[in-house]
TrEMBL record:
It comes from Lygus hesperus (Western plant bug). The keyword Nucleus does not apply. The lineage of its organism: Eukaryota, Metazoa, Ecdysozoa, Arthropoda, Hexapoda. One of its GO terms (biological process) is carbohydrate metabolic process. This is Galactosyltransferase C-terminal domain-containing protein. Keywords: Transferase. PANTHER family: BETA-1,4-GALACTOSYLTRANSFERASE, BETA-1,4-N-ACETYLGALACTOSAMINYLTRANSFERASE. Residues 9-86 form the Galactosyltransferase C-terminal domain. One of its GO terms (cellular component) is Golgi apparatus. One of its GO terms (molecular function) is N-acetyl-beta-glucosaminyl-derivative 4-beta-N-acetylgalactosaminyltransferase activity. The keyword Coiled coil does not apply.
Length: 133
């Protein structure tokens, strides 16, 4: 199930806190899968989002604008339980930032990301990377 499919895949199509239904049609938050080629085609994530909210909807818009489409497994297969966590404060500018997303897509993302790798660790289950932004 955890693969990089031909099209970007929204994996968490049925989450317990949403009564195993999509809260809205274009949701791409939670768990997703994309190939490196797809991620580069959409120019990665925007660098304009800080705090909670908007970055996943921005990614959904990037996917559509790039001629790709979001796929999902059936809800009977893609069932998730949201882990207990402290809710983050919503970014008050998330809707304004999202509204302007399509205009920025080509200049805001992987091609404008500034970072420095501090250290990393490769394990059998994951790769951990610490960066400075």
């Amino acid at each position: 199930l955890y693969t990089c499919p031909d099209q970007p895949r929204h994996m968490s199509a049925a989450v317990d806190v949403f009564n195993y239904r999509l809260p809205y049609a274009d949701i791409f938050g939670g768990v997703s899968a994309m190939s490196k080629t797809q991620f580069e085609k959409v120019n990665g994530f925007s660098n304009k989002y800080w705090g909670w909210g908007g970055e996943d909807d921005d990614m959904a818009a990037r996917i559509k604008s790039s001629g790709l489409h979001i796929t999902r497994y059936p809800p009977s297969v893609a069932r998730y339980t949201m882990l207990s966590h402290t809710k983050q404060k919503a970014n008050p500018k998330r809707f304004e930032t999202l509204y302007q997303g399509k205009k920025r897509m080509k200049v805001d993302g992987l091609n404008s990301l500034k970072y420095r790798k501090i250290k990393g660790r490769l394990t059998s289950l994951f790769t951990w990377v610490l960066v400075e932004l």
